[in-house]
Design the sequence.
């Protein structure tokens, strides 16, 4: 198994964790990713990032790197919307100060792991004579 494949497995696991753990907390209420505004942007960009990371190297590396940047931006945008209570709750909004959860941390870590895998793959492709 190559180093880039190992990094991709780590990145996919971190993405799964990012989807499963709460992205914000309103007192005792945990808010998962699908309740946040623009959540689908992160899921789509992360899925595309992982899908293109293991494609044939010539065209895939720049495309996967671009999707990694888009996934990072999408994760930050979604994470900053953790306090958009009018979008998260239907009628009654809790009167507590929201705080961010671990979902965004795992999302950024997934992008970093995927970027490390892409870097390892680019180095391996460069070191092999054509």
Sequence:
């Amino acid at each position: 198994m190559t180093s880039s494949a190992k990094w991709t497995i780590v990145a996919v696991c971190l993405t799964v964790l990012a989807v499963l753990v709460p992205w914000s907390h309103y007192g005792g209420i945990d808010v998962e990713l699908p309740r946040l505004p623009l959540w689908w942007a992160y899921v789509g960009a992360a899925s595309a990032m992982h899908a293109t990371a293991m494609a044939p190297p010539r065209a895939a590396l720049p495309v996967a790197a671009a999707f990694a940047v888009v996934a990072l931006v999408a994760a930050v945008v979604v994470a900053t919307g953790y306090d958009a209570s009018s979008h998260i709750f239907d009628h009654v909004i809790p009167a507590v100060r929201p705080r961010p959860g671990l979902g965004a941390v795992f999302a950024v870590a997934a992008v970093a792991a995927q970027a490390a895998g892409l870097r390892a793959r680019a180095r391996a492709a460069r070191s092999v004579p054509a």
